[in-house]
Amino acid sequence: MSSATREALPQGITWFKYAAPQTFFPLAGALAPWFAAIAVVLFVAGLYIGFFVAPTDAQQGEAYRIIFIHVPAAWMSMLIYLVMAFWAGVGLAFNTRLSHMMASALAPTGALFTFLALWTGALWGKPTWGTWWAWDARMTSELLLLFLYFGFMALQAAIDDPRRADKAGAVLALVGVINIPIIYFSVKWWNTLHQGASVSLKSAPTMATTMLTGMLVMVFACWAYAIAAALWRVRCIILERERRSDWVRDYLGAGR
Q1: What is the pLDDT of residues 164-219, one digit of tens each?
Q2: 3-state DSSP call for residue 57?
Q3: Does residue 36 fall inside a structural domain?
Q4: Please, what is the angle between helix 97-129 and helix 162-176, to 10°?
Q5: Whole-model pTM?
Q6: In a domain, 99, yes or no
Q7: What is the pLDDT of residues 39-62, one digit of tens each?
Q8: Which range of residues forms the domain containing residue 248?
Q9: Residue 3: inside a domain, yes or no?
Q10: In a domain, 244, yes or no
C-alpha cells in the first residue's frame, strides 16, 4: 500500500497495515499465547463440566459424554473449512499473500478437528448404535471433508511455485465448500443414524442447562485453540516464504 493511499484512509482503517506479512508477524506472535492460555482454561473447565458435573443421560447413560468432544470438534471442522475457503478466496480475488498464508495455516487444524470428530463419533456410535461406522450421509460427507483438507495440503505441497500452489489450493477449497451444507443438513435431507440438532438458533435447546454450558465452553475452547494454532503456524509460513527478505534475516539474526 502506497503512502498516499495510506494517508487517504480514515484513521479507523489503519488496521489494513496488518495485511502485510511483515506487520502481521509480530501481532500474531503477541496474540497467540493469549489465545492458547484461554484455550487451556476453557478446556479444563469444559471437560470438568462435561465429565463430572453434567448429569447422566437417561437413554445413553455415561457414553453420551463423548459429545463434549465430538460435537465441538465436528462444528469446528466445518467452521474452519469455511474460514479457510474464505481466506483462500480473498487471496485468489485480490492476490494478497497473507490471505493464502492464513488458508494454509488453518488447514492442518481443520484436518485435526475433522479426524477427532470422526474418531470420537466412532467411539460414540459403538455403544449407541451398535456399530463403529456406517456409510450414512453425515459420516460419509464428514469423511469427504477430511479428504478435502488432505487434498488441499497435498496439492499445495506438490507444486513448487508458491503462487501457483496458492491458486490451485484456493480453487479446490472453494469447490469443496459445497460439502459443508451437505454435512449440516444431511440429517434433514436423508435418513441417517444421527439424531437432529440439540442446539439450534430457531428453537430452545433440547438438552439440560449443565450439558449445554459444558458444550458451549468446549466450543469456545476449540475456537481459542484453533486461533492460537493458526497464528503460530502462519508465523512459520511467513518466515519460510519471506526468508529472502531483509526483515526476516534481521529477525533470525537477532534470535541467534
Answers
A1: 999 999 999 999 999 999 988 876 766 665 655 555 545 555 677 888 899 999 99
A2: strand
A3: yes
A4: 40
A5: 0.87
A6: yes
A7: 999 999 999 999 999 888 767 777
A8: 28-196+207-255
A9: no
A10: yes
